[in-house]
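Z., the sequence and structure:
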Amino acid sequence: MKIFYSDVHKSHSFGLPKLRPADYDAQFEVPQRVDSILSCLNTTDWAEIVPPHDFGMEPILQIHTTRYLDYLKHAYEDWKVYSDEENMAFIPYTPGFNPKATTFDNIPDQDGFFMTDMYVPVNKYTYISAITSAQCALSAAQVSAARKCPAFAISRPPGHHSGPEICGGFCYLNNAPIAAQWLSRLGKVAILDIDYHAGNGTQAIFYERSDVLTISLHADPAWEYPSYAGYAHETGSGPGKGFHHNFPLPHQTGDDLYQQILDRALEFVDKFSPDFLIVSAGFDTYTGDPLGDFRVTRNGFSSFGKKISDLHLPTALVLEGGYKIDELGENVVAFLQPFVS
């Protein structure tokens, strides 16, 4: 299996932002996540780890607006007037919700326009890390389509909370939709999101479209991030009505219940009859993950991988969450193994 990876992500790493306590959650989305994955993949005889191709900016501009990309590209340097520290992560003073204004003299106000929460710190390497993360997803999509075989993108930072011009929840560019949009020239695409948190960014991007089916299994947003999207009644609108499906799950969901709901989700995929599948592969459903309360086991991940691989679709697997670092790599290998067996 082709595994697309770049070490550019390593510089997207932070000390504690100002104004935040010592348990600041962004410390969980760290380069060591990828170290764990690479270490375990290197013990297999099927993982071929290669750098991503460069697709340029055009596929990214199909999903994200020019003004948002310009903001992300220049945000760190704009913030330097507030701090002399070389690797200071900045956060918005006040996130804005649907603000009417579109231009701001004050950089913290600009942050509030584009950031939905305080879980998207930015340093001088965040922009290039996010771009490279998207290139990994595009590369996996290209290989899966051309060779009719699975490919895995080690995309860090993750993407599924990012919308056309917002970042949030560790996510800056939405890797899976960028890849899906690129594939949509060639046929119908389904995105299956199995991260612990609802893929609100992915939902927003395709909510009014019928050519890309989006499905998300996740913790109920009534009590879990992202709170404002991911509910069962949200099924798309306009031409996209019926082409989005949310499956909110209860506290402490384990293998059996998750498998039951995954089977239901895959029925929608089968009915849609896509030409390509993209999986937003989150591993924060694992028991003991510091940012979740599900009880999925390693055997569960293996079973889920088998169910998805049995669809026999060209499949691009794109990394999302997973924060129990010492076991993340083994969980990823368990999930990927059925795709190469």
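The longest strand covers residues 212-219. The domain at 2-340 is CATH 3.40.800.20 (Arginase; Chain A).

Let me know what you think.
H.
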